[in-house]
Amino acid sequence: MTLAVEHVGPTPGGGSVPLVFLHGFTQTGRSWLPVVERLGRHRTCTLVDAPGHGDSPDGARSLWECADDISTTAGPGVLVGYSMGARMALHCVLAHPHRWHGLVLVSGTAGIDDGEERAARRTDDEHLADRIEEIGVERFLDEWLTQPLFAGLSPAMADRGDRLRNTARGLADSLRHAGTGTQEPLWDRLEEISVPVLVVTGERDAKFTDLGRRLTRGIDGALLIVVPGAGHTVHLERPDAFADALVDWLG
Questions:
Q1: Is this prediction's pTM over 0.90?
Q2: Is 175 in contact with 84 (CB distance < 8 Å)?
Q3: Domains of the chain by range and CATH?
């Protein structure tokens, strides 16, 4: 399936490696604009609307199907994925290793190890999908953004208006088909990754910082950067620090 994308910066073929950005759940490709605007106009950036989001409304796609969709629509280049987007990016690099030159995982995970915990998360995701369809996107976002995970987001950072472009059906299908509960753990496959990898987490997000450390232990040569004063949405809470770290890593 061809996904909706937005291109920012010069056309590919210049001096810099193209960057392909994958957003988190309830966001869209445009959620990355605060970072992209800080990278400079010489960077070629592709902002992808993931399946079930923005102008890619069909969310009935597994994570491996999402990886195929992203890899055939965008790239080659360096994948930058946040949260849900990080999980999709990890699948992209494993499924299409020759398509990608690098990988940046922001507040990401390789999955839930314990089978019972994974099944419980899948059930929770199903209930959440039902909730979205029951109350609609606007009311769901009111509930979603009040979670402690997003405590560091100001209303401007959250960009609720852009998230309202999503549909209840798209978001619900995304949860049912590509939610964390559906993901088979990939920890044992991290050693297959041969591209350079940067892992970024926020200092105030203890859970995902621990997961970030585990990712870097499993991926040969991976670098972990923990951004001070930031939580789960590290790239939006501290876009300047995130953009600087990304540019330094890209060299």
A1: yes
A2: no
A3: 5-250 (3.40.50.1820)
